[in-house]
Amino acid sequence: MTSPQGFLGFWETTGSAKTFTHPLDPALLDAYVPRAARVLDYGCGYGRLTAELAGLGYREVRGVDVSAALIERGRREHPGLDLMRWAGFPLPFEEGSFDAALLFAVLTCVPGDGDQSAIVGELGRLVRPGGVLYLSDVPLQDDPYNQQRYARFAQRYGTYGVFETPDGGVFRHHPPQRLRGLVRAAGFSVVTERVGSVATLDGRTAGRLQIIARREAAAASDAPGAPGPASG
């Protein structure tokens, strides 16, 4: 749930005690990711969705997060899960190691453009051609409360949609076209989208956008020996 470059302190302290609320859509997952799939839950936090996947019958699931505190919590709460703390990129997996990757409410916790691109780009390396990225995140909201805080922090962070919370967190809401663009730039094609609402960490409700995208066949530049994605 955290950025590999910055704002990690919140997730090692206050944020590590939060109860995450961004829900999985099991029916959407089931339509695109078979039970035998090798699944990477990137930004897994304390393994909430990793555990849900295991409970649904997905047996080859790995969770990775940059926060040591969240992974330690996950190992206490879900001792049978394969959870790993890893900061930065590349992750310690071979190209195409996974059939699917989850990226749930991760980009909202990563305010920087470069960090976001590095995350999605690394998932493009790790998901095999034909595999699936299941992204769910929070787009820009149109209510006065959110619009006011976007405007309040836009100059400080240089991006409309980034904001701070009173407990020290820094978050970002996105134009939907940015989320689609990140996915496409990493070599995925958007297959389907769904919108809905989710509970937020501060007890409010926000709209969400879910994207299912399929990894395209490797281009010549993706062939073995070609330069890989930049490290984050």
Automatic annotation (TrEMBL):
Entry's Gene Ontology BP terms: methylation
Stored InterPro entries: SAM-dependent_MTases_sf
UniProt keyword annotations, A-Z: Methyltransferase, S-adenosyl-L-methionine, Transferase
One Pfam short name: Methyltransf_23
One MF annotation (Gene Ontology) recorded for this entry: methyltransferase activity
Cross-referenced PANTHER family: METHYLTRANSFERASE (PTHR43464), UBIQUINONE BIOSYNTHESIS O-METHYLTRANSFERASE, MITOCHONDRIAL (PTHR43464:SF19)
The protein, known as: Class I SAM-dependent methyltransferase
